[in-house]
Design a protein that fits this description.
It is built from 10 helices and 7 strands. The protein has about 210 residues and is α/β, with parallel strands linked by helices. It has a domain of about 130 residues: 3-Layer(aba) Sandwich (Rossmann fold), CATH 3.40.50. Helix 3 packs across helix 9 and helix 4 packs parallel to helix 9.
Length: about 210
Amino acid sequence: MATRIMLGESLAEVKPANYQAPTHVAVKVPVFPFIKFKDSDPKLGPEMRSTGEVMGIDKAFDMAFAKAQVGAGNKLPLSGQVFISVNDADKPRALEVARLYVDMGFTLIATGGTAAYLKTHGLPVLLINKKHEGAPHAEELINSGQVQLIINTPIGEEALMDDSYIRKAAVVHNIPWAATISGAKAIAEAVSGLKKQGFSVKSLQEYLNLVKR
């Protein structure tokens, strides 16, 4: 079979005669030990090693991702405030994600550049300071329990260092955070699924159609 695939045949052409397409989605999420090292910056790099992984299964991506996040110890919020601070290249895609959170009833808070961009495109957002500008700033709001989700996509070494206090505070208070726009959108879809329907439970045997009825 491997040789035939290498010669250019598709998976559909080489699948077994009794192949049954799955009716579910499975999402695997790595688990990192950031909580054990609260003073370290949880930004990911090529040298990072996870301590394990978890998997969520459901009929659609949103709830499968939600289950995986909960399994990894990340409690997804159903309401509250979302802090957004993204680099210029990410702003157009961040606008779409920010709109998803507003539509679900979340409040947006952001630093200068991101706040101005969101406001220009008609989204309500509360302006907060960068840490060196004084209160109110993100770390202060995180520590006081006023932030339920963080979207932070710094670019360049200076931005990574400047925003390290945000990531460290997120770890200390176990607040879910996304370092990419695709990750932020996946979380938004999971939150939307949770708000609409909540969790359902099925055995692996049921998902794999191994249960005799």
